[in-house]
Amino acid sequence: MADPTKPSQQAAGQAAQAASRIRPPSGTRDLYPDDMRRRRYVMDAWRRVSTRHGFDEVDGPTFETTELYTVKSGDGIIGELFQAFSGKDPEQKAALQRGEPAPFAIRPEFTPSLARMYAAQARSLPKPCKWFMAGPFFRAERPQRGRLREFLQWNVDILGTPNEEDHAAKQEAEAIAVCVDLLRELGLTSKDIRIKLGARQMVTRRLADINYPAESTDQVIALLDARPKIGAEKYRERARELGLPDAMIAHFDPERREVVRLDLSPDQIAKMGGDAASYEQQFTTEGTLFRELDVLGLREWCEFDNMVIRGLAYYTGTVFEAIADGERAVAGGGRYDGLVELFGGPSTPAVGFAMGDVVLSLLLEDKGLMPAEAALLERTGGRPDVFVIPGGESTDTDVRRTVAMLRSAGLHARTTTKATRNIGKLLKDAASSHARFAVILESATEATIKDMSTGEQDPARTLVANLAHTIASR
Question: Residue 19 CB: number of other CB atoms within 10 A?
């Protein structure tokens, strides 16, 4: 008689077939051990560089109230958010049925959370306040190479200021220095990637000069930011729809791109005319960003690019992007004075940037800079110290006891799950694990140690009781 508590073979088969059709959501990743090691390598570099530059780690919730994102960007951002609500709350369900936005959104970026957090404790926080975080973020957009719906992001920010002259330029240069140091840390050079600088205030000043409606400025900024993606014809069409005069449309035309290397002298930049001259007046005078980049040895990495605007509404001044291979944005950020005040905080100058792991990892792979498996294990702490092999008169119990003893002594110890006692085959397994040493357990009390890097093997057996000390001392 069939057991009624067990599914029938047909039902089990149908369930297995259904499960085999389930795939991860589009724009997400399944990360297997090798993938996790590569991601850990990037995250460890983020934390190492942040700490080296004196930044403290923070974090916030992975979902926030939807209002946090609409307070500055308006309701238009709703379509870019993964919204969230409680299925147990009838009021939230009813609101959704009425077509209202959900009360919560899974975080697409960190800057609004950061501003909210700073505003809540601004009076007791140091000035400047240097924070970083690295964690998961989510954006409801079309997945493509280098752009996923779920990704990791590194955020580096400086909020508040000491009462000193030229603090804005110094903090902007410091933020850029952290970004460049991370790129150097991973083996990239100024030939691989450029820090492209833009000046948001130059655009807003031009709009103010023609008395352009302030309430439409954000739409113009968004259009200028989209120029590399939509092309010249679509740009001109949309610019006319926004009512921009012909002279301004021509001035910002993507076919009129200007790129000025900052390793030129201020006089050389000034002679170039156009936006280059405006940039020189805005940034390259004594005591400003040009000088601060020079002080930190960063000018060879940087260039002014009039296509760099950055579309987020909260930027107020200098903006920058780390661009590789022509158009691949690895990082981006800028100055966002005024955002903290929107969340009830005091007047707070602020600058920061973010870097995602997807484009960065692809760039490292393409440049041959992602370490091989053995090096990744070494750098991320995943390389075993010792691989224990049964041999001689040792039993399975002896092996398990020895592995437990080594682990309790703080060593990363592994062993085989194979039934074979062929030493040659098991040494190949030890080599595949990239263990530093192989321990061939001869008996419950004696073992032979082999250095897997040199192939050298101890001529005399080592007492099992001394194994941990012997291996740790090498």
Answer: 8
Residue 444 burial (10 A CB sphere; 0-12, 13-18, 19+)? middle
Rounded to an integer, what distance in angstroms lies between the CA atom of residue 94 and that of residue 102? 10
d(CA 315, CA 353): 11
Q: Is beta strand 437-441 parallel, antiparallel or unpaired with respect to 386-390?
A: parallel
Apex 149 CA angle, 148 and 154, nearest 5 = 75
Q: How far is CA 173 from CA 82, 158, 298, in A?
A: 34, 11, 8
How far the first Cα of the chain sits from its last, in Å, is: 64
Biggest distance spanned by C-alpha atoms of the chain: 94
Token couple for 176: 């850029």
Which residue numbers in the chain have pLDDT < 50? none
Q: Which residue has the tokens 């942040």?
A: 50
Q: How far apart are CA 394 and CA 392, in angstroms?
A: 6
Report the amino acid identity of residue 446: E
Structure tokens, 5: 């508590």
How many other C-beta atoms can be found within 10 angstroms of the C-beta atom of residue 306?
26
User: How far apart (Å, rounded) are the C-alpha atoms in residues 151 and 49?
Assistant: 20
- DSSP 8-state secondary structure symbol assigned to residue 44: H
Identity of the residue numbered 316: T
The pLDDT of residue 116 is 96
pLDDT tens digits, 29-79: 999 999 999 999 999 999 999 999 999 999 999 999 999 998 876 666 778
Q: What is the DSSP letter of 147?
A: B
Could you give the CA distance from residue 132 to residue 57 in angstroms, rounded to a whole number? 5
Q: What number of residues does the chain have? A: 474
Q: Check: CB of residue 136 under 8 Å from CB of residue 59.
A: no
**pLDDT of 377-413, one tens digit each?**
999 989 999 999 999 999 999 999 999 999 999 999 9
Give pLDDT, residue 148.
Answer: 94
- Would you state the structure tokens that stand for residue 242, as one six-digit string? 């926004």
